[in-house]
Structures are given as structure tokens and as C-alpha cells.
Write a structure and sequence with these properties.
Blueprint: E1 3-5, H1 11-22, E2 30-34, H2 41-44, E3 49-52, H3 58-62, E4 70-73, H4 82-96, E5 100-105, H5 117-130, E6 134-139, H6 147-156, E7 158-161, H7 173-185, E8 193-196, H8 204-215, E9 220-223, H9 226-235, H10 240-254, H11 264-269, H12 276-285
Helix pairs in contact: 1-7, 4-5, 6-8, 6-12, 8-12, 9-10
Length: 286
């Protein structure tokens, strides 16, 4: 049996491979996959098996997955194409007789109004219909999503958003990757859904304080209306689709859709999640 990690050349997938090795998985039992295998050369040098796997080419997916394998399906970043891409992996896992699929989904994917939820909902439904045993990890927000605020606020002294008093229970990408490794190595997680998030739901005043602690300069939160936010994004040259997405996401945060602190992530990884300022400091140093 092998543990197969999709998108292992990406930010989350690579960390999942690292976490598997740190948790004692033998390198030869791990298969790191990517569209571009050359990006996995350093992992191959450490004894990890590597293989081509392209979500858009089902033949490459079928060639990698075998009977009894555990497949860590790291969700695609191709918004609008995810369902078909994920289905290719699920279908190949079913055809091969894989032992389990571990899927990185979105918070409350089947019921949430979160702008990102529909494709994850469809994937979860396809996975359930396939009959392949599954562990669903509904990843909350990544602290690294706000690393750009550090550089911006260093110059402007401001973090701006239209989230109102909304809160985000973020965690570091490494926290979520470690949870995926734990789930992949623990068969008792089969059939379970985990709502993963950080231990603390912070607001934008706290974000400003954290950024100020990193930059060493005063930083304040500027609360925008959705209309003001959209106009500012247009002024920065963003296209209408991106403007609509960003403003809608801030609306989701304003409505509390990323604020839940379930404790599932902390329980899975066996330690507290990475605090906001620590996660931002690490991300801004990369």
C-alpha cells in the first residue's frame, strides 16, 4: 500500500509529504505527484517515489493509483474546473480499488453559502456516491492568505477590508498539512468529516496588531463598505470577476462563515494551532 499525494509540487501538497515523513512514513511508501515531476526532484533525492499526475489527463491519474492505496486528494486551484478534476481522481481510486481518499474540502461545504463551497460540495457528493471510503477534511482559511498585508501595511500603515466586525479562525498551511498526514496514516478516520480551523477567531483589529508587531510600525484597520472595496479593487486594476469574488468573500467573512473554532484541527494534530502572528511572520519571511 502506498500513500499518494496529489499536487505535491504545490504549497499544501509538498507540506503534506513533509508531514508524512515527519510522522514516520517510510519514504518509499509515499508517492508525490505533480503535472511537472521535475519539481519533485528534491523529494526523490530523499527516497520518496514521484510520478506524473495531471487532473486534466485521467490516464495519468489511473496510472498512479493502485489497489489498497490511500490517496490524499489536494483540491485543485482551478476554480470552475475543480469538480471534473477531482472526479477524475475519485473515479480512478474507485476503479483501482483504493483503500481510501482523503479530500481537502471547504468549511461546511454541503450547507455553507461560502462563495468557494459549491465545487467542494459537488466533489463531496461525487466521492460519497463512488463508494470509496473517505476522510473529508474541511479546511478553513489559511493564515498565509494574509501575508501580503504585511508588505502593504509596511508602506501604508493600513489593512483594508469590507469584513466589518467579521472574524476568521485561520491556521497555518503547515497545520492543515499535518492534519492531512495524520488522517492518511490513521484508518480510523475513514467515514469521518472534520471541520478544521484555528483555535482562535481573530478580527481585523487583531490582524492590524499582528502586522504591526511584524513590521514594527503602527498599523490600523480601515473598514470599507462593499461598494468602497469594489471601487478600490477596480482602481488597482482587478477585473470585474476578481472584484466580485473578493468582495463576496469579505461578505462571507462579515457573515461569520469562517469564524468557527471547532477544535477538530487541534485534536487531529495533537497540539495548538499556529497563532496568527507566528503564521504571518513565517509566511512573510519566505
Amino acid at each position: 500500500m502506498s500513500t499518494i499525494v496529489t499536487a505535491a509540487s504545490g504549497q499544501l501538497g509538498r507540506l503534506v509529504v513533509e508531514a508524512l515523513l515527519a510522522r514516520g512514513a517510510a519514504p518509499e511508501s509515499v508517492v508525490a505527484t505533480s503535472r511537472d515531476v521535475s519539481k519533485l526532484a528534491d523529494l526523490a533525492d530523499r527516497g520518496v517515489r514521484t510520478a506524473e499526475l495531471d487532473y486534466t489527463r485521467p490516464d495519468t491519474v489511473a496510472a498512479v493509483i493502485g489497489a489498497g492505496d490511500v490517496v490524499v486528494l489536494v483540491s485543485s486551484d482551478a476554480v470552475g474546473q475543480r469538480v471534473a478534476q477531482h472526479a477524475a481522481v475519485v473515479d480512478a481510486a474507485k476503479a483501482a480499488g483504493a483503500a481510501r481518499v482523503v479530500y481537502t474540502s471547504a468549511p461546511k461545504a454541503t450547507t455553507s453559502a461560502l462563495v468557494l463551497a459549491p465545487e467542494h460540495k459537488a466533489t463531496e457528493e461525487h466521492l460519497a456516491a463512488s463508494g470509496v471510503p473517505a476522510t473529508v477534511l474541511r479546511n478553513g482559511w489559511y493564515t498565509e492568505n494574509y501575508a501580503g498585508e504585511v508588505a502593504t501595511a509596511r508602506e501604508s500603515g493600513v489593512v483594508s477590508a469590507s469584513v466589518g466586525d467579521g472574524r476568521v479562525a485561520s491556521a497555518s498551511r503547515r497545520d492543515y498539512a499535518e492534519a492531512a498526514a495524520v488522517a492518511a496514516l490513521d484508518d480510523s478516520t475513514a467515514g469521518r468529516v472534520f471541520e478544521l480551523s484555528g483555535d482562535h477567531a481573530w478580527n481585523w483589529d487583531e490582524l492590524a496588531e499582528a502586522v504591526a508587531g511584524i513590521t514594527g510600525t503602527p498599523v490600523r484597520y480601515e473598514s470599507l463598505t462593499p461598494e468602497q472595496h469594489a471601487e478600490r479593487l477596480r482602481g488597482a486594476g482587478l477585473d470585474e470577476g476578481t472584484v466580485g469574488f473578493v468582495v463576496a468573500l469579505d461578505g462571507n467573512i462579515r457573515d461569520g462563515l469562517l469564524a468557527e473554532t471547532s477544535g477538530d484541527l487541534r485534536a487531529l494534530i495533537g497540539r495548538p494551532t499556529t497563532p496568527l502572528v507566528e503564521g504571518l511572520r513565517a509566511a512573510s519571511a519566505e
